[in-house]
Amino acid sequence: MFNFFKKTEKRVETEKRVETEKKVIREEDFKDVTPVATYFKNETGVSFDAQTSILRNKLMTFCRQREIESFTKLLQLIHSDKKIKQELTDELTTNETFFYREFKQIENLVKLIKASHSSVRILCAPSATGEEPYSIAIALLEAGVNSSSFSIVGIDINLDALSKAHKAVYKERNVRNLSQSIIMKYFTQTDNKYILNNKIKALVSFKQFNIFDDSLRQLGKFDFIFSRNMLIYFDKETKLKAKAILENLRKNDNHEIFFGHADLF
Question: Which domains are present in the chain?
Answer without folding.
Answer: 2-92 (no CATH), 103-259 (3.40.50.150)
